[in-house]
Amino acid sequence: MPKVSDVPNLGKAVVDALQRGAPDIDLNDLPILQDMSADRLTENVIAINSNTPDQRQKFVLEQLVKHVHAFAKEVNLTTEEWMAGIKFLTATGQMCTDIRQEFILLSDIFGLSALVDTINHPKPEGATEATVLGPFFVEDAKTIQIGEAIASDGKGEHMLVKGRVTDLQGKPVARCLIETWETDEEGYYDTQYGEFEMDCRGRLYTDDDGNYSFRCVKPVPYPIPNDGPVGKLLRSMDRHVFRPSHLHMMFQKEGMEELITSLYFENDIFLTSDAVFGVKSSLVTDPKLIEDEAVAKSHGFKNGPYWHLDRDFVLITTEESKAQIAKEREERAKEVSA
After folding, report:
1. Domain named Intradiol ring-cleavage dioxygenases: which ranges (predicted)?
2. Separation CA 145–CA 156 (nearest Å)
3. What sign does the dihedral 232-106-58-43 (CA atoms) show?
């Protein structure tokens, strides 16, 4: 059989579609699809997709088709449920804007974002664990010097964060860029206010010994966006929409694997039920309240008390990261084939 465009007496709709860029497929390359029974449908879909030139794309789509079809069979998906799902995904897309991604939020609440992050950023023993970036990172935050503040006055309870950044061997990572951002005491990021004015975020560099310190405020819990279809879904499952308080930190240094992580806080009411599954036990901290006014002022605060948090971070090299990813992919492949 010829290409589609070689077929005589094509209708105008087909010709128009080809002119608009529809694939002009060689019909000889297509499998013969005839039996569309429930038992054959999955293999037919996989067969028609088998000419996908990108082998990774081909593999991912093949597995997707298998799992989606298996899911529909396992739950005996009804036509009404299928249509409800279509309408939900349509509403999810309609909720997206340039500054809001409802599909990522959907991925978040099912733990998929956290899972993909963990798969793609595995850490060897001794390295600081990564967690989800979240939607509130902003480029071009103000650069501060070690010991300075990322938050203006009146944004919340004072907190000092200090520590050291090293590699797996304990050697300092000098001049490492640290990006950090957080909520104010009301539970809002600066980007959530009507008039955006950058606050409660900043960037700084470690010194030659890998040391860093900065003043900020103690973050508080906050809700994920819940006025759209994802929020409605959570309500239908009797789940809450809150994230525990946390301080975002991102580390960048040439030759080192970028680390995106967060610090969480002991005794937070949402620590064990994070709506987006971002909490890891190794990232939970317990800052100490310092009430001595003289000590507070020595760190640059106008007055006390303040929360004091010491936290070191361990980065891995890009080569160590590649080796760890390869190791874990091999282990997962063995599990799948077992």
Report:
1. 134-293
2. 21
3. negative
SS3 1: coil
Matching residue, tokens 């507070």: 296
The residue type found at 241 is V
How far apart are the C-alpha atoms of 262 and 239, rounded to whole Å?
Answer: 23
Q: What is the reported pTM? A: 0.87
Distances (CA, A) of 30 to 26, 27, 53, 133, 293: 7, 5, 14, 43, 78
How far is the first Cα of the chain from the last one, in angstroms, to the nearest whole number?
42
Domains and CATH numbers, the chain: 4-74 (no CATH), 114-321 (2.60.130.10)
- Taking the C-alpha atoms of residue 101 and residue 308, their distance in angstroms, rounded to an integer, is 35
**Rounded to whole angstroms, how far apart are CA atoms 49 and 43?**
10
Q: What are phi and psi of 317, to 5 degrees?
A: -75, 165
Q: Is 281 left (phi over 0), alpha (psi -120 to 50) or beta?
A: alpha
**pLDDT in 10s for each residue of the chain, 338 residues:** 578 888 888 999 999 999 999 998 888 888 888 888 888 899 999 999 998 999 999 999 999 999 999 999 999 999 999 999 999 999 999 999 887 899 999 999 999 999 999 999 999 999 999 999 988 898 889 999 999 999 999 999 999 999 999 999 999 999 999 999 999 999 999 988 988 889 999 999 999 999 999 999 999 999 999 999 999 999 999 999 999 999 999 999 999 999 999 999 999 999 999 999 999 999 999 999 999 999 999 999 999 999 999 999 999 999 999 999 998 888 887 777 66
Q: Long-range contacts of range 286-290, CB-CB < 8 Å, 24 or more positions apart?
A: 287/159, 287/218
CA 6 to chain CA mean position, Å:
47
